[in-house]
Amino acid sequence: MLGQDVLTVLKRAGIEAVGLGRADLDITDPAAVRAAVEGVTVVVNCAAWTDVDGAETAEEAATAVNGTAVRVLAEACADAHVRLIHVSTDYVLPGDASEPYREDAETGPVNAYGRSKLVGEQAVTELLPQDGYVVRTAWLYGEHGPNFVATMLKLAAQRDTLDVVDDQHGQPTWSYALARHLVELGLAALKGWAMGGIYHGTASGRTTWMGLARETYRLSGLDPERIRPTTSEAFVRPAARPAFSVLAHDAWKEEAGLEPLPDWREQLTQALATPGFAALAKAARDGRAG
């Protein structure tokens, strides 16, 4: 989802780029990774094991992709003098705060997925202290992959009401907006403006999953009251979820001279106007009318 958006942004900016999917590159293969980074200036790593619940019973496999492979990539970039932008997650944090987490907040994952991603973060900051950029994101949605916003619109055509948790707080982030920010960060890095380290690539503001669902319906011409609040206890999952995933964005200005991402509502409004989401919204309205 994010990788396709990054390539689209680069193409529209006229920047030469190569996108390597799973079939093109095994990121756990050190020789293949070293060959892939030769001759480039910036690597953006969007590859990840993203099955949060699946990681609970396959932590070793998740860590191989989210941790060990990232160390391989960081080593290759260090040897080739290539800058690395690595996409990480809010799940490396404990999720028990009441104020936005700063970039230097103490980590403490509550599940296997978060632990696997933390291994990757540590590899980048250790091996590329100046040329490594860890960008934590959260609550990502976009046109090119399964995500919460798309699911809510699909279910709108099938159900009269939906129960959505209202006790998890975060920052819904449009993958295309994040992709633009990653490209801006890469360009700033090449110019020597951006310092290596940890950045928080999430939307400004905050809401809950119920708040996101209701706003999605409202902007799509659907009745937001069809979304009913419930608690996390009503939806028991194999992996624990952090209750508070709101991140601070100070590093963008202080370390890179860039503005943070805009408010989540602004991003959602733009995202829902894109063809893929607009089609889902129309289908939802038509299905409801039928």
Elements, N to C (H/E): HHEHEHEEHEEEHEEHEHHH
Number of domains as seen in the coordinates: 1
* CATH class category name: Alpha Beta
Counting DSSP H or I runs of 4 or more residues, the number of helices is 10
Please state roughly what percent of the residues sit in beta strands, choosing from under 5%, 5-15%, 15-25%, 25-35%, 35-45% or over 45%: 5-15%
Largest sheet: 4 strands, parallel
Rg over CA atoms, rounded to whole Å, is 19 Å
Judged by helices, strands and strand pairing, the structural class is alpha/beta
Across the major sheet, the strand order is 1-2-3-8
CATH H-level homologous superfamily name: NAD(P)-binding Rossmann-like Domain
Number of strands: 10
The span between the termini is 31 Å
By CATH, the architecture is named: 3-Layer(aba) Sandwich
Predict the CATH topology.
Rossmann fold
Unreliable stretches covering 5 or more consecutive residues = none
3D shape: globular
- The average pLDDT score comes to 96
Considering the chains and any ligands shown, give keywords for the structure.
4-stranded parallel beta sheet; 290 residues; alpha/beta; Rossmann fold
